[in-house]
Amino acid sequence: MTVADSSLAPVVLDRAREATQPALRAAVARLEPPLARVSSYHMGWADTEGRPMPGNGGKALRPALALLSAEAVGAPTGEGVPGAVAVELVHNFSLLHDDLMDGDEERRHRPTAWKAFGPGLAVLAGDGLLVLAEQVLMESSGQGDRAAKLLTDATAALIDGQSQDLSFETRMDVTVEECLAMAGNKTGALLACASAIGAALAGADQVVVDRLYAFGHNLGIAFQAVDDLLGIWGRPEVTGKPAWNDLRQRKKSVPVAAALTSGGSNATALAELYATPGDLTEDQLALAARLVEEAGGRIRTEVEAQRHLELALASLDGLGIPEVTRTDLAALAAFTTTREL
Amino acid sequence: MTVADSSLAPVVLDRAREATQPALRAAVARLEPPLARVSSYHMGWADTEGRPMPGNGGKALRPALALLSAEAVGAPTGEGVPGAVAVELVHNFSLLHDDLMDGDEERRHRPTAWKAFGPGLAVLAGDGLLVLAEQVLMESSGQGDRAAKLLTDATAALIDGQSQDLSFETRMDVTVEECLAMAGNKTGALLACASAIGAALAGADQVVVDRLYAFGHNLGIAFQAVDDLLGIWGRPEVTGKPAWNDLRQRKKSVPVAAALTSGGSNATALAELYATPGDLTEDQLALAARLVEEAGGRIRTEVEAQRHLELALASLDGLGIPEVTRTDLAALAAFTTTREL
């Protein structure tokens, strides 16, 4: 197993952001002005009036994977740029629509787009970004059609995952396997696509594209498992969210599903808490967290996170990826899965 | 100019619906169960509980155009089926999202999907249909990638058109040209794509595909102009909507834009009515309709409808389209543009 050093990650992400920004901004500028304005606000480039804001938007994980995926097969970084732009556009499409669906009112300490511009423009801007992503690939030199199919299938999986996640809300019998499959769709599919799209654009062999896809897919599942751990045991000063936030929202995350389906008295007590009407008190939340842990939900999730991270890194073996690129991929993998609790 | 006989249209539409339904239902069945349920309800195939409903959904104009577009270049009807399915999926994506954006609570005498299932599932089902449309084309035999690009560009234009339409709401200086351009995007682009996609799938020359596209594009503008006439002067027993419905909603339709920008005293009086706070009375609506007519808005719209219908039919000249196919296309054109006021 590659030793993963996350300290390189910020440099890799900064480089990807810089390489992607001009093409990303040019793509968004193709939308009708009202949709470009909503999108620029959502990306963190502008305020609600369209005035430029400092900063460069999100952390560019997906663009970084897309660029490294071109480098992984010996292609110039530039060949991955349309892929980097496309996956970032689809990521932001899904954030725009999910924020509305989930009723989230804040993102990065600002009102979400649907709160700032209304649900109609937020939905339409999301639609615009999704279609723009396909256009960017279809118009690109290189194997744009192949990349577009990869992105389309990943987007279909992402939508399936969101649907599965919503359907978990009304169920108490969600299994760990279902949770991991949902994470594989909702989080894994787009990271998988990002990790393979640069190679697809550059015309790499399908077997190499498939292995890079597997890297991103497993990385996505590991990422989600870690996120689920943070959602219960993450310290508010680190996560920026209230303690026990996922329990507060009664999410069926991996640790909760593991606990609820563990069959013991802890599972029964947790199910009763989750079925309690009204907001849970801080004492009830602390109790729920303890029940999840005592039912084995925490350790099970830690094992799954580690297992999928190892699967991800093993996918890179024997592909002849340049050492420097492999080091960068491993750094991103470490960065996304070893965040502080 | 081809003499257009709309009496053939119902047969053409029925045949298209029958040829498309199995593949369309199979495509929708690929979505996650909650999204397939919302979509089946929206298409008119099922009630909110998923129980089958009699009837076969909408009038299948776009599928009919797609199938005829394959026949137009001498290909078997079957080669157009993936195109027919894809344009119908995109049409329903746009209805699902537009109903939410426009706050429409009824469609075909039933609650709209967002009223029946909530905004979240309606948005996600729309997303699902859009991506499914791309998948159907990308997986098809024939020139699926070429067809997918045609559909993607048409969808981008459709989204632009919806954005333009929304932005007209707050403006009083919308010109007839802007209205027609908006209609060319919002209604014309997908009809254009439908009219060309079967030919594209079948590998026709680009010049033929472009001419079929121009047919559908102009047909869409003519269709929208007729719809705008019906929106003011259509009889409620024919349109199923209240009299003067577009005026009630203060739409900037073609006749209204023509009147508002006509510069005379009728324009000023109409602008004052449109600026009146609160609901307009029946007397005010009757006055508004008269002002639009006296300012020349009605005749201008009739001229534009006729002009674009003629442009549409002229696009079919000299392409060597089999006479029977051309007759069917002309019947659909007549059917969509000569509805009773």
From TrEMBL, chains A, B:
This is Polyprenyl synthetase family protein. It comes from Yinghuangia soli. It comes from the Bacteria. Coiled coil: none annotated. Keywords: Magnesium, Metal-binding, Transferase. Belongs to the FPP/GGPP synthase family. GO terms for molecular function: metal ion binding; prenyltransferase activity. One of its GO terms (biological process) is isoprenoid biosynthetic process. The keyword Metal-binding applies. PANTHER family: (2E,6E)-FARNESYL DIPHOSPHATE SYNTHASE (PTHR12001:SF71), GERANYLGERANYL PYROPHOSPHATE SYNTHASE (PTHR12001).
